[in-house]
Structures are given as structure tokens and as C-alpha cells.
Amino acid sequence: MATMMALFGTGAVVMRGAGCTINDMWDVDFDKKVERTKTRPIASGLVSRPKALAFLGVQLSAGLAVLLQMNPYTIFFCFGSMPFVIMYPFMKRITYWPQLFLGLAYNWGALAGWSAVAGSIDWTVALPLYAAGVSWTLVYDTVYGHQDKRDDIAAGVKSTSLLFGDHTKTVLSGFSAATISLMCLSGYMNGQGLPFFLTVAGAGSAHLLWQLKSVDINSPSVCWRIFKSNAWFGAIIFSAILADLAYDRITNTDDTEEQPSL
């Protein structure tokens, strides 16, 4: 399991980096018009497009090296995420829902992780988990998008931040509730115990509520701070899994000790 976690950790860093490279290559003309992004390497001219393409090749090769350590089912399944990775930067040109496509790409690992361990996917568990991740992405990336909304309007970039506008907190309340509900549904279908649900529904809900209470969608600095705080939400979900695993091992040990020897 430690090896699998190391592989997925490496793969996540490499492929998210590749996604950022693709995004910066697609968006170089937009990035030049946005105050926060005009200093990015490609937009500023520090890195040429051919060099960026070569770097992308290195990233994708590293990602492929990680992927080839998986079982055949997972290898072929993971290629299914590439259309979403490539499409995401283009979506902000034609739809106000590019964050949805970002979520579909970023959370593919929730499905791939299951297949890497089991050799197949139990959709009753993995699909709600995937949907929870997509919903969460809509929350944090909509907040993120509010940093650049004035420049985005001028540049012609679309986003859920612009679509939701002044109703952002109301809409994100719904996506936050969906995130927690779907996470709990996935846990229920997987047979998780009480510590998982208490942590997700308790601490997880409290953190998302704090985000919605604290965010000022007209303050880029506050939006950035709230966006970064989602690392803590991820830590809460991870701690819920660890707490449930520890509880399960303790209770199973107690049950074994209580059984009479033959």
C-alpha cells in the first residue's frame, strides 16, 4: 500500500504539472491580459512555446512511467482522463462551466486509485467519491476564479465565478452540501465506520461552512487565502479515513481477543 501511495503521489504531482503546462500553453494570450498571470513563464516570454512543449513531453513521459507500474485495467482506464485535461483550457472560451471540466480531469484519480488496488472499479463506491471531488472542485475553483474576474471579463474568459456572480455563496452552499453528502454516500457504500462519518460530516462540513462565511468574492487576497485553505479540507478527509482504519483495527482486535480458544 505504501508503494501504491508513493506512485499515486508522484503521478498526481507530475500530471497536475502537465495540466498546468497545457493550460499555460493554451492560455498564453489570455494570461498576458490578466494582471495575476501575465508574469507566468510562457506569457512573460521567459519560456518559449517550443521549450514548454519539450517540458510537457518530459512531464508526460514521467507520468507514463508511473502509469506503467499499474495493472493493465488501470493503464487503459487512465488514458480516459486525457481528453478532459486537454479540453479544460479550451472550455473557458465556449462555456461558463470550465470548472466542471477541471473537476472531471482532476478527480479521475479517485477512480484510478480504486482500479489500481482492485483491478476493477466498484462504481457504487467510486462514482459518488468522484462526483464529490467534482463538486468540491467547483467550490474551490469558483472562489479561485473570483480573483481575476475583472480581467477575465475584459479578456473574454468565461468561468463559474462570472456565471454565479453575486449569488456565488448561495450556489456554492449547494455544491458544498453535495460534496459532503456524496462523500458520506461513498463511505456508506464502502462500509466505513462511525469515525469516518463523524469527521466528514462534522469537521468537513464545518470547514466548508467557514470558507463560505469568510470568503469575500470581491477581495482577491481573501479569495486566494480561502482557496489555499482547501488543503485543510483534504487533510480532514484523509484523517477521516485514517481514523476509521484505526478504529476498525482496534475493534477487530478486541473481538478476536474475546473469542474463546478451542
Task: Offer a concise description of the structure.
The chain has 262 residues and is an all-alpha fold. Helices cover 78% and strands 0% of the residues. The chain has helices at 2-26, 28-31, 49-67, 72-78, 82-94, 98-106, 108-118, 123-145, 149-155, 160-164, 168-189, 194-214, 220-228, 230-258.
Give your account of this protein's structure:
- This protein is mostly helical and 262 residues long.
- It is 78% helix and 0% strand.
- It is built from 14 helices and no strands.
- Helix 1 runs antiparallel to helix 3.
- The longest helix has 29 residues.
- The mean pLDDT is 91.
Shape: globular
Number of β-strand runs: 0
Helix content: over 70%
Based on secondary structure, the structural category is: mainly alpha
Biggest beta sheet attributes: none
Number of helices: 14
The H-and-E topology, N to C, reads as HHHHHHHHHHHHHH
Poorly predicted parts: none
How large is the share of residues in beta strands? Answer: under 5%
Mean pLDDT: 91
What is Rg?
20 Å
Distance between the termini: 34 Å
